UniProtKB/TrEMBL annotation:
<keyword id="KW-0963">Cytoplasm</keyword>
<protein>
    <recommendedName>
        <fullName>Histidine ammonia-lyase</fullName>
        <ecNumber>4.3.1.3</ecNumber>
    </recommendedName>
</protein>
<comment type="pathway">
    <text>Amino-acid degradation; L-histidine degradation into L-glutamate; N-formimidoyl-L-glutamate from L-histidine: step 1/3.</text>
</comment>
<dbReference type="InterPro" id="IPR022313">
    <property type="entry name" value="Phe/His_NH3-lyase_AS"/>
</dbReference>
<keyword id="KW-0369">Histidine metabolism</keyword>
<comment type="similarity">
    <text>Belongs to the PAL/histidase family.</text>
</comment>
<feature type="cross-link" description="5-imidazolinone (Ala-Gly)">
    <location>
        <begin position="123"/>
        <end position="125"/>
    </location>
</feature>
<dbReference type="InterPro" id="IPR001106">
    <property type="entry name" value="Aromatic_Lyase"/>
</dbReference>
<dbReference type="InterPro" id="IPR005921">
    <property type="entry name" value="HutH"/>
</dbReference>
<dbReference type="InterPro" id="IPR024083">
    <property type="entry name" value="Fumarase/histidase_N"/>
</dbReference>
<feature type="modified residue" description="2,3-didehydroalanine (Ser)">
    <location>
        <position position="124"/>
    </location>
</feature>
<keyword id="KW-0456">Lyase</keyword>
<dbReference type="GO" id="GO:0004397">
    <property type="term" value="F:histidine ammonia-lyase activity"/>
</dbReference>
<dbReference type="InterPro" id="IPR008948">
    <property type="entry name" value="L-Aspartase-like"/>
</dbReference>
<dbReference type="Pfam" id="PF00221">
    <property type="entry name" value="Lyase_aromatic"/>
</dbReference>
Amino acid sequence: MEGTPLALAEGWRATVEASAAALEARMATGEALYGVNTGFGKLAGTRIPAAQLAQLQLNLVRSHAAGTGPLLPAPVVRLVLALKALSLARGASAVRPAVVEALLALLAADITPAIPARGSVGASGDLAPLAHLSLVLIGEGEAFVEGQVVPGAEALRRAGVAPLSLGPKEGLALLNGTQVSTALALAALFAAEDLLRTALLAGAMSVDAARGSDTPFDPRIHALRGQPGQIRAAATLRALLAGSQIRESHRQGDPRVQDPYSLRCHPQVAGACLDLLGHAAQVLEREANAVTDNPLVVEGGEVLSGGNFHAEPVAFAADAIALALAEIGAISERRIALLVDPVLSGLPAFLVREGGLNSGFMIAQVTAAALTAENRALATPRSVDSLPTSANQEDHVSMATGAALRLHDMADNLAGILAVELLCAAQGFEFHRPLQSSEVLERAHGLVRTAAAAWDADRAMAPDMAAVKALVERGRFAALVEMA
């Protein structure tokens, strides 16, 4: 999402020009065209005189810039710009090529519109956030330039980009669409994919730290069920544990017949999350390439009013990602609880010698539990929470933007949970020395130790957690995992 050049399909300009020409021809007939020579939403029955059509589009952008809350991260906004350019370049939105070129110019100049995160219900498009983006195109609003927020006009001046004068329907085409909710969901999906890989690594470390069995990862078990994600997760766990001396040390004579579910059922849970994320990725890939504004100019020049701006697919995808994030964290927290419990793990209580004098990882598990509880609450589906807007003209909405926005808090919480598990599992390794785990798990152990020393006596835990969490968020642990 950062710094990647955007190249549109060859021939996009001719397609876009044809769409704009078709709209111009329909306007010449004098018929009522929604959002072109009429008002918007509940005001669609109001005809606008030809002399005021340019003002209509300008008023739309200004009035709809009603967002609030913290600003969206720059990488997400860059993705929004790219998705909007891709959508308009499909040639069904009846805008001039200049509109697409203006979006591309912002990307090329690294001008990032300042977009408040809240204010969209994910139907009629992401109206408020896209209005804030569009303000910058016309030389208004605010934008980030070299890390500083400046007026939109100043941002364009510095980049040598001329403000855009909006033509018929162009304000509406810019505001209609699911690009903000889609960009937010995509960014969360990318984070979730990395976090799932990290969770598989952390889970494999916990298996060795607790002297668990790798029998539950036997491919014959998973082939009998046939769930593709589960099969991949089990294969990945097998590969992560392959060659572990710790595993070999207790292969014979271990009185435990079965491990707790958090170890034994990791392929089933992670695999289901893997399949869920895969489905969400398919939905979001389609949406990223979709035309989602209204009305649309189709082949033959006909202008059709519809509802492609309704972001229900994105809302469902975001809710699915939320379930995956919550469950990855929930089973990780259970492994943390297992590791600090001497009855279950066979390790010293709270993973520290001289327990009592030292509390070890006691409260780190409490923190993981708090983050897990928060993610459970955040995982409540948003797509079922429709609230009518626009005087009941927009009487069913998707809530996709909020659904996608909450994923970023969930991913942050999950990174914190996984950081605690990695710390606990690495500490567990210390009690099995001189035995070594597998090569890849020892590399993960070494990565933890670059950020946090072994826990010999109590000290402040928060700096260790923050340092390992930073490595999680940078994908350092995920990079160690080769998915089957």
